[in-house]
């Protein structure tokens, strides 16, 4: 288990969390902010949850070195497997408009002098049950991955994935799993 779990993290029976710095950027004020089901194995995860963020992980998941960047909501079903260095994010974290990016950079710097960060878009991410996500895949804001889907290594998921699909590429393209059987 990590050195110390934040008080607003609930972990189910039989779940193991390994790693030194899993919660260094965990700022959620919700209680609970993070709920993890039973019998999960989570190794070297990075849970970066903003003040208003909530996250949920189902039962019997295997998550190997994932990065979760959450400002709103990330929901992960049961029996999900994530290969190393998968990134799941429900926000862009910085404005897309160039002028607002400059304001944001100043607000995040030591020179901020009380300047607030501009509003940044976010949208929940939902990953269904029995999903396999290959190493170094990226799941972007506002997407939903249907149950039983297979996300190839290195894929960039930019839109919803129907249940039982195989997704590959950047941006990811869906093919029904039935075509591969």
TrEMBL record:
Decide whether keyword Acyltransferase is in the record: yes
User: What keyword terms does UniProt attach to this protein?
Assistant: Acyltransferase, Transferase
Q: What would be one Pfam family of this protein?
A: Hexapep
- Molecular functions (GO terms): acyltransferase activity
Going by the entry's taxonomy, the superkingdom of the source organism is recorded as Bacteria
Q: Which CDD domains match?
A: LbH_MAT_like
Residue ranges for the region (Disordered) are 160-181
Q: What is this protein called?
A: Acyltransferase
Protein's organism: Aeoliella straminimaris
């Amino acid at each position: 288990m990590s050195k110390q779990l934040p008080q607003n993290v609930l972990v189910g029976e039989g779940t193991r969390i390994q790693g030194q710095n899993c919660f260094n950027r965990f700022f959620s004020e919700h209680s609970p902010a993070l709920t993890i089901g039973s019998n999960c194995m989570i190794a070297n995860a990075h849970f970066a949850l903003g003040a208003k963020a909530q996250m949920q992980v189902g039962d019997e998941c295997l998550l190997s070195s994932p990065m979760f960047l959450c400002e709103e909501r990330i929901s992960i079903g049961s029996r999900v497997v994530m290969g190393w260095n998968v990134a799941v994010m429900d926000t862009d974290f910085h404005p897309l408009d160039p002028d607002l990016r400059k304001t944001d950079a100043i607000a995040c710097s030591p020179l901020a002098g009380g300047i607030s960060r501009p509003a940044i878009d976010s949208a929940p991410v939902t990953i269904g049950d029995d999903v396999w996500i290959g190493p170094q895949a990226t799941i972007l804001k506002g997407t939903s991955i249907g149950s039983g889907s297979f996300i190839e290594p290195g894929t960039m998921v930019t839109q919803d994935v129907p249940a039982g699909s195989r997704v590959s590429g950047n941006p990811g393209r869906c093919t029904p799993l039935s075509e591969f059987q």
